[in-house]
Amino acid sequence: MSVLRPLDKLPKLNTATILLVSTEDALLQQLADSMLREDCASQLNVHLAKSLPLPSNVTRPRIDLIVFVVNLHSKYSLQNVEESLCHVDASFFLGKVCFLATGAGQESHCSIHHNTVVTLAHTYRSPLLFCDLKTEDFRVTMAQRLVRMLQICAGHTPGISALSLLSLLQSPESPSLEDL
Question: Whole-structure pTM over 0.70, yes or no?
Answer without folding.
Answer: yes
